[in-house]
Specification:
With 177 residues, this protein is mostly helical. It contains nine helices and three strands, in the order ααβαβαβααααα. Helix 6 crosses helix 7. The protein is globular.
């Protein structure tokens, strides 16, 4: 959803969804749109204050290169330590052209001051039968395989699609069985 949202913001055709044809959309699909920035962190279980300062705070003052917005995507944002959250506080309210997406499974871990400055969008798990039908209709996945993908996806359509298309998942599942 974060990718689709950021692509829609940056799409040159300015519709309600990305056109998938303009230069910006093609760049975003290739993960090389210069105004969509994915935060990277070296430590596996921590997003440090240095990560926030170097990749967001020190970059946000630079206007977008080719798009109306600069979109920062922080996946697993719950891994930000308290110092990183404090470093992000002032930045959240910075330029109008900046959008910071904090993706998490546990928003309650954030400082109250962070939560008060954010628009919160809670997503619900998609029912298993809908995911199964979607996989079977759109990806031609046989029902037995769709059942396994749905069980592992736990209501996440993207994860179910990824599992259905993954060669590694099938190999691991077969060896486990």
């Amino acid at each position: 959803i974060a990718d689709a949202f950021s692509m829609t913001l940056e799409c040159e055709k300015k519709g309600t969804e990305p056109c998938m044809e303009c230069h910006s959309c093609k760049q975003a699909l290739g993960k090389n749109q210069p105004d969509i920035i994915y935060l990277q962190h070296e430590k596996p279980n921590t997003i440090s204050v240095d990560d926030i300062r170097s990749q967001i705070n020190n970059d946000i003052g630079v206007k977008p290169y080719s798009s109306p917005y600069k979109v920062y995507i922080v996946d697993e944002a719950e891994k930000m330590n308290v110092q990183a959250q404090n470093a992000l506080l002032k930045t959240i309210e910075e330029p109008a052209y900046a959008v910071i997406l904090l993706l998490t499974n546990n928003a309650e871990i954030f400082l109250p001051t962070i939560l008060s400055r954010c628009v919160r969008l809670s997503l619900k798990a998609v029912p298993d039968e809908k995911i199964k039908a979607y996989l079977m209709e759109n990806y031609e996945v046989p029902d037995y395989k769709a059942d396994v993908c749905v069980a592992f996806a736990q209501g996440n359509v993207g994860k179910a699609i990824e599992l259905a298309e993954s060669e590694d998942f099938n190999e691991i599942k077969n060896s486990a069985l």
